[in-house]
Amino acid sequence: MHSRLPEVGTSIFAVMSKMALDHHAINLSQGFPDFAIDDAIIDQVYRFMKDGNNQYAPMSGVPALRNSIAEVLKKTFGFAADAETNITITAGATEGLFAAISAVVGAGDEVIVFDPAYDSYNPAIRLNGGVPVHINLRYPDYTIDWDEVKRKISPRTKLIMINTPHNPCGVVLSHNDLVMLERIVLEHNLYVLSDEVYERLIYDGERHQSVLRFPGLANHSIAVFSFGKTFHATGWKAGYVVASEKITREIRKTHQFIVFSVNTPVQCALAEYLKTPQHYESLGQFYQQKRDYFLNGIKGSSFEPLACRGSYFQLLSYKNVSAKGDVAMAEYLTKEFKVASIPISVFYQDKSDHQILRFCFAKKEETLARACEILSKF
Ligand code: PMP
Ligand code: GLN
């Protein structure tokens, strides 16, 4: 049978979560919280369902939600979005990323991707006829080498994809990075696809550098967000995409034929919930505590933490523990020690293996405590 993605198997997130389940392991692999979401938003969903909001939402999203998002964007980034023409509600960031790529990438267009990269980027580019050009982040601090970016730009380059805060590395881009990016994008007339799903999961007083804070860059950018991360509800698959009117028009052409529209009562509830800034403003503090709890719990073990400034992922180097490759090590820890993680070599096109595993700390303290107890034996 013909395959458009012949070498692609099952996503590492599905593989490791299944392995965790099969082996009764603590699942710190796939990124999702194991604690309850706020009852207030559940009550809202229920109320909107009871009130009859159970049919198709408008294709581009419930207007009240787009208006609430416009308010948040103004307040957070000083970005004036027109709810009607700049914001599209998508089935999670994953669909938003795909629709965004389809909007700007044509056959043979090159797209710069930084590795390690979230696993949907490369297939989404190729399914849209594009050619991914992978550049490794500098190991071990996972920064972007902007000179290398300049060298990799060709007449076919169309798009640069960035992700800050970064999954899986937990690094964040600096103001200076965005200034460099803006310069390159304007000089070569490129687009930027900015994956900002962890915008509020940022620590140690760092400030999230959204492309929407930079007017020149914003004009050339598509920014992608996810309510799954911000409101601990990854299973709701609700997110949104912010772009210029021209790009938004193209994004919606694809969006309408992938899902048409997104879950109506959830959108209505989110519209209300977003009106209270306390519902999202302290998220950074909340997760910073979890990061520190996890780090404290593994202190004294032979696992070595790398810096985590954002996202809900902590990288641990196990160089002092084992000589295994990271895929084998993740499997070994899951099956023999009952803690599941994600090997990060799978996020590299060249499969670079630095013997590092990713652990999700979006978990109850008792879950983290149990995992730390096991990891501390090493
Ligand atoms: N981008 C990144 C970097 C992510 O980590 C995730 C979720 N794990 C997504 C996109 C997809 O988000 P969603 O679940 O809203 O589709
Ligand atoms: N974003 C989540 C992670 O990085 C997983 C999302 C998914 O399973 N597709 O773990």
TrEMBL record:
Aminotransferase class I/classII large domain: which residues? 25-374
Its cofactor is: pyridoxal 5'-phosphate
Q: Which GO terms describe its molecular function?
A: kynurenine-oxoglutarate transaminase activity; pyridoxal phosphate binding
Tell me which Pfam families the record gives.
Answer: Aminotran_1_2 (PF00155)
Q: Does the keyword Methyltransferase apply?
A: no
Which stretches are transmembrane?
A: none
NCBIfam families from the entry?
A: PRK09082.1 (NF006569)
PANTHER family xref list = FI04487P
Q: So what family is this one in?
A: Belongs to the class-I pyridoxal-phosphate-dependent aminotransferase family.
Name listed for the protein in its UniProt record: Aminotransferase
Native organism is Pseudochryseolinea flava
Q: What is the lineage of its organism?
A: Bacteria, Pseudomonadati, Bacteroidota, Cytophagia, Cytophagales
